[in-house]
Fold these 3 entries.
Entry 1:
Amino acid sequence: MVLELPPMCGIFGIVLKKRSAKLGDMMVRAAERLSYRGYDSVGMAVANGDGAIDLRKDVGNIAQTNEQFGYDRMSGDRGILQLRWATFGVPNTVNAQPLFSPDEVMVGAHNGNITNDPFIREKLEREGYKFLTENDGERLVCLTHKHLKNGKSPEEAYTAVIGEAEGDFASVFMRRDSREVYAVKMGSSLYLGLADDFICVSSDLPSILEFTRKYVRLENGDLVVFNDRDYRIFRLPEQEYIERPVTVSDIDIENANKEPFAHFFMKEIHEQVEGTRSLLSLYGSTGVWKDFVEALDKANRVFISGAGTSYHALLLGTYYFNKIARLPIFPTWASQMLPLYSNTVGEGDLLVLVSQSGETKDLMNVYDWAKEKRVAKTFSVVNNIGSTLALHCDGMIPIYSYLEISVPATKTYTNQVMCFLYTAMKLAERRGIAYKGITWDDLHRVPELVRETIAAAEEPVKELAPVLLKHPSMHILGQDMTHPVAMEGALKMKEVVYNHPEGMYSSEFKHGPLAVVDKDYPVLFVSLPENEDLVLSHMNEVICREGIVVHVGQPSRGYDKICHYKLPIPAVGNPYLNSILSVIPLQMIAYEMAIALGNNPDQPRNLSKTLTVD
Ligand code: M6R
């Protein structure tokens, strides 16, 4: 199955037969459908004939910006819009898209990332372009503008643009002097909607199905040029015009965003392939990790805090920093940080605050305390770069997972862990430490290995789910770097199955909890290759008491012989890759069990995505 990049910003463009007051209303309805893709800022640009382009944009979601600007009353014969989920440049009015070319003849918007943005910027500056924003979209607009201004056709101009701009993105542009709108798909999803009196293009299908059931699914490398009646699709790599099939959809709009999955939870598990790829590509091209590594290196002592899944990720990160970079770190739950360390944190120490949302109250309490006492510097590791923590801490490193919609975290956990492994390796290099056990080549295998891990777990989770469902309680054990993985697996299960799995350190199990084991009590062991003898011995302690033993990890003859069930991961033979991949079968078994019970894993009872209360 080919998946697009995870949802990140939304774009939409439309051409009507003639000027109409319904343009603004249609664009707002499309924006509402796309609102899950970004709420850091929204911008709309409309034009009529060859009159000036009316561009309005600001921070906020579609409801707020529509109230501010009256988008739904804007009239014209064509328009484009963008909803931003910030990845480059803080969310502010200047960085909001769409963006003008310097002469305001052209306006454009994109989603995704231009990974060689710094190089394009430098090159265009040498040619006289001046930039007002930190946003890579501005470079894309100027690059396109440059080629169109030189007299090239859209086909020629975009051929040149994709020869220079690297990354996964989709973009939409319109001009003052043309009724045509152009859109390009280079990695992010893009659909063309067809109706009798308009043609439109959008990042997702529901925003098109809102107006018409006829659509064309565009493919990577497609440039589409359209007005209200006609469109042509030009293949940029092959330099030829092609036809694509027109589909008449019978899809239920409400479910279309999750397609081809029934829930965001499973979609986001699959998005770990592209999410990890994005992180590696963006860290590599932007050097966004440098400040974090420097802060870690210079700190007197490092304290790291987070809640829930973010805590499990930072706990695994603590192992990486110890093993790879020889950096000792104090890991705590955010709510535990002050009771444990407030009297000992001092000048020169660093507080690292790890949070998907960047808004969790338990972390805000630590930040507020540090700010008031002025005892230590703060650094956030966040997914939402427009969040309070991201904007207020002394430093910030993004994890580039893009929007996570399902309440239980899956893909953001994996990217948090990837962030820590990446920065631990960079820190070791900065300190001249010759670490062993993981190489950059290994790390770059992660996206494909995630894909293989998902495929390998699909059948085994179906077999195991009915067995585990018979038991209201179980243990998930991990040793060394799989301890946080076991805790995260147990949390996933609790969140969506509503049972009671306990994730704990395997060697601790015999110090009391072993007493719960009797006939058929399930214990899942998450293994590392080098711990096989120890894990086998822990398994035998359960087997001889007639418990059910499940092995989660790389297959081996030893496990095959004694385990009742297996949730395998690929035989990577590498403890670090093992620690990243082994959470995936646990996420998947939790999903399988939730579905069997009829629970909605996207919205577990009693929970909310962002906890802004104590
Ligand atoms: O946004 P944060 O990472 O700060 O959220 C922390 C926890 O609330 C969060 O991880 C929670 O445990 C999730 N529901 C886990 O799936």
Entry 2:
Amino acid sequence: MRNVQLIFGCLLLVLAAALPQAFQNPYYLHLVVVIGIYAVLLFGMDILVGYTGEVSLGHAGLFAVGAYTAGLISTKLGLPFYAAVPAAMAVTAVFGGLLAFPALRVTGPYLAMVTLAFSTIIMILINEMDFLTNGPQGLQVQKPVFFDHRLTSEEFYYVVLAAVVLSFIAVTRILRSPLGRAFEALRGSPVAADCMGVNVYRYKVLAFVISATFAGLAGSLFSYSEEYIAPNGFGFELNVLFLLALILGGKKSRVGAILGASVVVLLPNWLSDLALFHSLVVGLVVIVALAVGAGLVRKRFTPRQVALPCLALAVFVVFAFNITDITEQRLTIFGLMMLAVIYYLPNGVMGFLKAPFVRLKADQSAATNLSKPRAVALWETDKSAQSSSEPLFMAKDIVMQFGGLKALNKVTLSITSGSIHGLIGPNGSGKSTMMNVITGIYVPIAGAAVFDGHSIVGRPPSKIALGGIARTFQNVQLFGEMSVLENVLVAFNHTFHRGLPAILLNLPGYRTEQQAAKDKALNILDFMGLKSLRDEEARNLPYGKQRLLEIGRALALKPRMLLLDEPAAGLTAPDIADLVQIIKKIRDHGVTVVLIEHHMDMVMSICDTVTVLDFGQKIAEGKPAVVQSDPRVIEAYLGGSAVEPEPEPSSEPGVPHVLIQKEA
Ligand code: ADP
Ligand code: MG
């Protein structure tokens, strides 16, 4: 597949290189240059919107910053192209960093508003700062000079082509690197990313900065290509156009970005010529007819489903062949076409084209036999660290309050190194809250927590994770759109020490790190029995496998303490039996395990110590058998208003699921 892509890419490149010879008309060449420039911007914007999942309506502002910086440097300072472009990229990167700050606090529609405001402010500033920018009159820029020769439009085309190719490679390498995986993890689950040692703030800012750098490159190329820039060229419409191009082409795809850029640049031009517009409509009818026909034959649509769109298309065709003057209707038609495409192809053109392959892959992996967990060693165990009776973790008088409710009321907990420590109690008793306190997601209002001799209160989750505490979540928090292997690789991010230059140049040292991380991740998948599913998207896994994957991902941190929040919930009996074996093996690797579980047979059989919480207070602690017969514990399970979930059918009949059954 990689080779096919490479050959296809080279072919396209040869075609692109021959383009100036093919076009006699300089106007068309100019359109292609604009497509290339937009594509560079969209590559970067996709990092933010597609991978990190942050909406941006501020990229026109960044584009303007790049254009004006390059324009001003070349006109006012008279510096050459190869100084102006990097400077523009750097300045835009700084602005991107500024734009990141609101994104650390707000997301979704609010972030869209903030970024839009940012872009508007940039426009106003350019308008107002007459002394520097010439205000509304704009700035004249000339084509770059190389070795005393001013480039012609045709020669500049090759500069843009080179920029597109280099940006394509750079963005692809970034996205395949630990950076890209961190960005995508932020989208999947920020809280899980944090708990895997991926600092959410740091990587969000990085995503904005990298994205802005490409906007800066695109902007600077734009000023040289147009030879004239004015503030009204970077307005609201351009923001919408960029976002539209990205969605239209398909997020998370470089080819999609090029396609999207082509559509938003070419379509309005085609719409200005009636004859061209008519042939476009005919083409559209043919494509829709083919798609609908194929869909009906393969029973993917019912006739009723396609009736409305076909009717709408018919009305559109009648309208299209009845108008005599297209210039007035241009924007309306453009808008309608865009709406239709986005409505019917929510994943963009590339998403639509890729769909059959994704389905094929899913079918294939569903057909492969699911492997059992295997008895492979996770890592060399350090025997000396294993057998100590010292507490690895100590919490004293932890208080955690939500409004008036004390979810944890002076809880003291001591976890012995190398043990499996059960944490049980009725629903709402504060078990998960305790886990969130230990992993830094909540900061307790009082109390102390010490792990391995260091206080962890107030430390950010990513630091705590890298310090040796890994966890899973009660409601599974995987990076859904990433593959099983990538999910585990995210937690290996801390093993990478090479920086961005090594990634961009794909240096051997960095490649070794990638390979090492991949080998270790595959070993973990083998251990968990998930190796055959390595390329499957995490969200497509059956629920039980998702839970196992989450444990595998946590193991990638090579933790000293592993917290499992109801790992057996929703698992079938044979899966639970596997899980018990896995947990024991993890403990044998020297990892201390804290287990929150409702399956009492499991808790009683594998835990060395059990702590019982009720209404935020510790009511019992000790060996499982002792705790089990404690009257306060029985009372908590019987008398509490909290309702126990229906126990899963057990693999061993006669073994009680909840404490009280045994006592009754
Ligand atoms: P458990 O895991 O033992 O079932 P939790 O620790 O999830 O219980 O919850 C303990 C109590 O704290 C519950 O009453 C719950 O509603 C409350 N709680 C937990 N997290 C929050 C939160 N973020 N905001 C408000 N209340 C919360
Ligand atoms: Mg819970």
Entry 3:
Amino acid sequence: MKIFKTISSIRSYLQELRNGKSIGFVPTMGALHQGHISLVHRANLENDIVVCSIFVNPIQFNKKEDLAKYPRTIEKDIIKLDEIECDVLFAPDVDEMYPEPVFDKYDFGHLEKVMEGQHRPGHFNGVAVVVKKLFDVIEPHKAYFGLKDYQQLKIIEKMVSSLSLDMQIVSCPTLREKDGLAMSSRNVRLSKYERSIAPAIFRVLNSLKEKINQITPAEAENWAIKQLNKFVEMKVEYFSIVGADDLLSVKSWDDRPHIVACTAINLGKVRLIDNIILF
Ligand code: AMP
């Protein structure tokens, strides 16, 4: 695997390599787990060249402490990427990505006003800035994103369509531990006890399937919040049942053709997000 830290070096390398070949791109913040690896696998199946990036993007963190504590395991990550035949790794420093202050402002309308957007001001602008910059550098044909970060996926799809970028966004299923907990780089920060109760998040999300058409979406949200709040260590930041495309809240189950439930939970000092597409 070729590793690059500067924009100019990866650009010139890809320029030569490209030559009619398709490029699949997997942007990450590192501390790689099987979820990330599944994206690289998929990119490998569908493209001639696979590029992965590892960059802990400071401007998408709205809390300094969260940025400081974000796990960084670049050496282990390189070994994992090498093993699964990733062709190119782009791992720039902050100064390389942001030599000057960033002023770009995106407007994603309602998509950025709810859930993660509401609770993490500036988060999605930071995500959009870095992803657009990475797209400009790599110029991929396809880019791979996990459904684990459902709202992020919707924001990126919106960015690509509104800027008419000539590329395809591929959404990939959430990989879970055997007990249902969504894989996340943040899971390593959970204490043993927190880790033992964390699977309740997906259990509750999954149980919502039985509530469809039995109670209203608002009642289902309240039911879910009540289940999760039974654990004193869990603080539900939001639990929202919304239209899968517009992320608008729904009054009844037939309001939208597809409905998703999304949640963010503070478990001890760790913030976890998860979701389920109900139909
Ligand atoms: P991150 O490094 O957390 O920014 O994630 C990089 C990419 O991996 C994003 O597109 C995430 O949605 C995706 N991802 C993170 N966790 C998982 C998972 N458990 N299953 C599938 N994809 C994931």
